[in-house]
Amino acid sequence: MLHKLLSCLVALVLVLSLSLTAAAAPVLTYRLSMPEPHTHYFEVEMKLSGFKGKTVDLTMPVWAPGSYLIREFPKNVEAFTASTSAGAVASSKIDKNTWRVASGGKDVTVTYKVYAYEMSVRTSFIDASHGYLNGTSIFMYPEGQKNLPSTLTVVPYKDWKKVSTGLAPVAGQPFTYRAENYDVLADSPIEIGNHEIFSFESNGVKHDVAMYGDGNYDPTRLVADMKRITDESAKIFGDMPINYYLFIVHNLNNGGGGLEHLNSTTLQTTRTSYGTRRGYQGFLSLVAHEYFHLWNVKRLRPIALGPFDYDKENYTNMLWVSEGFTSYYDDLLVRRAGLMTEREYLDIVGANITSVENAPGNKVVSAAESSFNAWIKQYRPDENSYNTHMSYYSKGALLAMLLDMEIMKASNGTKTLDDAMRHLYELHYKKQGRGYTDKEFQAGMEKFAGKSLNDFFQKYAYGKETPDYAAYLAAAGVNLVDQNKTQNIPLLGAAISTASGKPMVTTVTRDGSAWQAGLNVHDEIIAVNGYRVTDDLNRSVPSYAVGDVLETIVSRGGQLLGISIKLLKDQTLKYRAEAAPNATEQQKKIYAKWQNVK
């Protein structure tokens, strides 16, 4: 009897303890409304229950993962108020992105407004036609409580009937969603309005396409082609880490770009882009790029990119992998899906090499340096960026291709970069649950190349040496031809815009004719060789010969100056990739493996 009594007491104590723990656990809910969308404001209500202490600090991120720039989202916050059941309580900002609320240990309700009128994939926007938001620029979180689950209720404007998001819906509660932590809330964009929704299934997972804005697309064709790309992408990793995926597509008058998220993406495109083969393929490459991020960067990631510090820059040398490898695969996946011809794909290969090798910045910064400097370079271009910066997207894509060739050559076409990426995904994401270090990524590549790649990484990823592209591509029986090799024509080496009605210099290429003569950005071209100039000077340069001198009058800061520009030979490259007609059987095997040619 005594034993039973003790057992009951223990059970009662346990129940009380669990109850007290549950009662003490903080609870966080959000309510998002937009009663006047034409004013471009979202309104947020946060309810915080069970938070102990005299004050609660609320923080808003200053950047959005995937877009490496401090964007200072708190600048758009206004009308911040806080109250408890007893009435209004004091609140104040303690730094640029943190508000301190004097809650006194009581449950508190916070309200604020956010001005949202920047139509990009990285920010938030609302007008009379629709609302779109990224969580980082709208939702605050309790300091030190990023792992706290939350519930979000969206209250659409009165005439809007649809909400699309990757957040998990709460059963039986319309437009109410659950986020297991702040990272999930921040990484789940939301489209609100009366957009069209198309659906398809890929690898057993439902995919929705939320289309805002008119466009000249064929829904049936578009859905079928997007499915071909998603199917092809999943083959690389052999795993679907999600049970739902959402494409948010903004069809705009002018637009382009995308941003990856945990189980969704936002894409922006020009509404007429679907009407040409080139434009349509460009959109499909964007689809492939952002969808590939479902694995590469959202899960297979550099160790610095998660968990995120939303208050400051998160530095890594490896964006040339996160974005560059993804850029390599975007066109390749369109090709493998049968949506791009062999000739079209090889033209892209040649154009990509041409673009990188013609950029002076390619000789100034390495792929790793470009990655590390993304926060101050990639999204802050100026008139000299072409001379000093190299995109980690472009350079990384070429390095991915070269590593692919290296692996295929070493394995006689039995292994590819796909296998190395799958290995790293399984090792670091699925087994270890963390990001990889720089050395661990290199080791993953070496495992499939069957040799040390230290020379490759030091020269081409961490160094600025020029790879022998032709030698690498030869593994797949691809010849690389410089179509400019035998030409002897002049090049000004400056970009000139007439948008203002005047021929104005906008960029000057390092070591070119204009650079050496002293032509400056912002110079207005007035006359050349005694004749008035009203058009882009580059149009008339082909009528001159190498060595000719252009006696040029410019207006610089209102002062007329004479500059003698000696025209130098055009040193730019123009590569064309061609399948070798006399390829060996091994080269044919590698070529077929590379592009998935049947």
Quick overview:
With 598 residues, the protein is an alpha+beta fold. 30% of the residues lie in helices and 26% in strands.
Outline the structure in words.
The chain has 598 residues and is α+β, with helices and mostly antiparallel strands. The protein has 16 helices and 31 strands. The longest helix is centred in the first third of the chain and has 23 residues, at 2-24.
Percentage of residues in strands: 25-35%
Oligomer: single chain
| Overall mean pLDDT | 95
Could you give the order of strands across the largest sheet? 5-4-8-2-1-12-15-14
- Largest pleated sheet: 8 strands, mixed
Measured as a percent range, the helix fraction is 25-40%
Per DSSP, the total helix count is 16
Radius of gyration: 28 Å
Q: Roughly how many Å apart are the termini?
A: 78 Å
Structural class, from helix and strand content?
alpha+beta
- State the shape: globular
Write the layout of secondary structure elements.
Blueprint: H1 2-24, E1 27-33, E2 41-49, E3 56-59, E4 77-84, E5 87-88, E6 91-95, E7 98-101, E8 108-115, E9 125-126, E10 131-133, E11 141-142, E12 150-155, E13 162-165, E14 168-169, E15 176-179, H2 182-186, E16 190-193, E17 196-202, E18 205-212, H3 219-237, E19 244-252, E20 256-260, E21 264-270, H4 277-292, H5 319-322, H6 324-336, H7 342-358, H8 367-372, H9 385-388, H10 392-410, H11 417-431, H12 438-449, H13 454-461, H14 469-473, E22 478-482, E23 490-491, E24 494-497, E25 504-508, H15 513-517, E26 524-528, E27 531-532, E28 549-556, E29 559-566, E30 568-569, E31 575-579, H16 585-595
Parallel strand pairs: 1-12, 18-19, 19-21
Antiparallel strand pairs: 1-2, 2-8, 3-7, 3-11, 4-5, 4-8, 6-7, 9-10, 10-16, 12-15, 13-16, 14-15, 17-18, 20-21, 22-31, 23-30, 24-25, 26-27, 26-28, 28-29
Helix pairs in contact: 3-4, 4-6, 6-10, 7-10, 11-12
